[in-house]
Amino acid sequence: MHHHMLGELIQKESIEVNKIIPADQNHTEELRNKLNSAQRLGNEFKSKADITFNTSEGAKTVSTTVWSVTEKYLQLKNGIHIPLNSLIDIDF
């Protein structure tokens, strides 16, 4: 079953970091492998991932290159940090 485009699709430029809230469940551990893959894809092949995260206005999905993954954040190019605990899903 495909969870493709779980949230409203937005541009990464319109991510409002102050509206990001934790997801109902913390998916960090189950998404850890996908996060690492997304980072590798982004760095080696410049390929994008669809990242769905939770905001106070509901789930949002952004299609973007993952720059790096830290212990607590997913980092996108323009210095945008998405907290890992807000992640709902990642798709390639």
Layout: helices, strands, pairs:
Layout: E1 8-10, H1 28-45, E2 49-55, E3 58-64, E4 66-69, E5 73-76, E6 81-83, E7 87-91
Kindly describe this structure.
The protein has 1 helix and 7 strands, in the order βαββββββ. It is globular. The chain has a single domain, classed as SH3 type barrels. The protein starts with 7 loop residues before the first strand and ends with a strand. 20% of the residues lie in helices and 36% in strands. It is of the alpha+beta class and 92 residues long. The model has no long low-confidence stretch (mean pLDDT 92). The longest helix is centred in the middle third of the chain and has 18 residues. The protein has a 4-stranded mixed β-sheet with strand order 1-3-2-7, with helices on one face.
